[in-house]
Amino acid sequence: MIGRDRIQYKSPDQLRLMRQAGLLVGQTLERLREAAVAGTSTGELDQLAERTIRDAVATPSFLGYGHPPFPATVCISVNDEIVHGVPGARRLQDGDVVSIDCGAILQGWHGDSAISLVVGGSQHADPADTELLRVTEESMWRGIAALAVGERLHAVGAAVEDLVLSADHDYGIVEEYVGHGIGTEMHQDPQVPNYRVRDKGVRVRPGLAVAIEPMLTRGSAQTRVLADDWTVVTLDGSRAAHFEHTVAVTEAGLWVLTALDGGEQKLTELGAKFAPLT
Length: 278
Hints:
This protein has helices at 12-35, 42-55, 127-145, 155-165, 264-269; strands at residues 59-60, 74-78, 81-83, 97-106, 109-118, 172-173, 179-181, 188-192, 209-212, 215-217, 223-225, 232-234, 240-242, 245-249, 254-256. By secondary structure, it is an alpha+beta fold.
């Protein structure tokens, strides 16, 4: 159903279908997390993602998307690359910060999620990178927890920004790329800023599904796009992180469609209502 605000509101049955797409995306990202080791190329990770999605009789959301058409199944962004990195011959090294963004279409419905990790784990991580990832992921969850029926949508960005500003480091919040509605298309109304804005946004209604995806840098939030017309990098060369989940609003609360546990652990920890549709 399309509301007067041009937002596609989903029925409970449609949200259940979106959960299947979301689970596939979450499972694909876990496979990629395990495979993202030193010596592996970003192109090899992309091939693994495509096999995983197609084996589930689903279609990659990103492949062929946009202008120029995106040439891969997942976006893989390394170190100073923020989002939309194009996989290829680059081989990962221990200590690299890697962000992987994945989307899939299953029975006509999209799921979209992103993770960031340090290759080689904590023993190879710069502590500043570890903290960057922690703050970025936590800011995403604070934004998710701010979603509630009857509240204003842009409370999400305010919650993200509040968490980032409370950190010990002065992180850059990337503003050019924001969250979005999702459903039968990957990008739909409404836009969901990752920062505080004057406009409070629409009132949140049951059936809303959005992708919430803060992107933080260790330095300036200024960006530029590389010659491939896709890869977005930090202007000052600082490292960046990106986390994303697709979230549904139900009558009773929230269901994180791309989280393997539906978001139960983090939503409960933050005092938000976890409300999956059974």
